[in-house]
Write a structure and sequence with these properties.
Blueprint: H1 27-38, H2 43-50, H3 54-71, H4 83-111, E1 114-123, E2 130-138, H5 143-153, H6 160-175, H7 178-215
Antiparallel strand pairs: 1-2
Length: 224
């Protein structure tokens, strides 16, 4: 009689797959990072507020920036399917919005803010007309806010052409392969050596031509 309980005939049980380490960039952590950035905290302090390592947050932002430049052509898509690109876009926009708000507060302090605004209506006892009056009380402006703003508005102004050249150079550097980046210093040194050699040859040719002119041409008239 055949034994149906024989374990040797049972199919091999599949081993469970080993799950990888879960990423720390959860929706909760991303929300904390964005909220910290929205109030103007630097990257390092935003990482502390979210409870992640500073170097970890910097690596996430670096990966997100690379993804935005290479896959999204510089477009900040807050709904990107790439979590690092989405994080970079959201944090960048949050920090920009914080800068806009802070700049508005400085500008408001410079020109003086409205403290109160009241309206008064009455009837003229002579003409019987209804009149109204608007009264605005402002806090006086502070010139130091304007000075601070001007000092930091654009300390090193550049033309649009210079900004485009700088951006093009940054893009070219990003597109270089690791081997090209390693060879760049050697190629620059080789170019300088070639330039010096050509200049030396030009000086020697010039000296030879001057000597020939001083001694006379070989094809000139021979005195008898």
């Amino acid at each position: 009689m055949k034994n149906t309980n024989d374990s040797t005939n049972a199919p091999a049980r599949r081993k469970p797959r080993r799950q990888g380490r879960p990423t720390l960039l959860t929706p909760t952590v991303m929300d904390l990072l964005i909220r910290a950035s929205a109030v103007g905290l630097p990257v390092t302090q935003a990482a502390d507020a979210a409870g992640v390592g500073r170097s970890t947050f910097l690596r996430w932002m670096s990966r997100g920036e690379d993804a935005v430049e290479e896959k999204q052509h510089g477009h900040l898509d807050v709904n990107s399917t790439d979590p690092y690109a989405a994080l970079y876009a959201r944090v960048t926009r949050a920090r920009a919005a914080a800068a806009v708000r802070a700049t508005g507060h400085i500008e408001e302090a410079a020109r003086g803010a409205v403290v109160s605004e009241t309206y008064r209506t009455w009837t003229d006892p002579v003409t019987g007309e209804h009149r109204s009056e608007r009264r605005i009380r402002r806090r006086p402006g502070d010139w130091r806010a304007s000075a601070w703003f001007l000092d930091r508005l654009d300390p090193n102004p550049m033309s649009l052409d210079e900004l485009l050249d700088e951006e093009d150079a940054r893009q070219r550097a990003r597109e270089e392969t690791p081997m090209e980046r390693a060879l760049t210093p050697h190629l620059q040194e080789l170019a300088e050596r070639l330039k010096r050699t050509l200049a030396q040859y030009e000086e020697e040719d010039g000296a030879t031509a001057a000597a020939d002119d001083g001694n006379g041409s070989d094809f000139g008239e021979t005195p008898w």
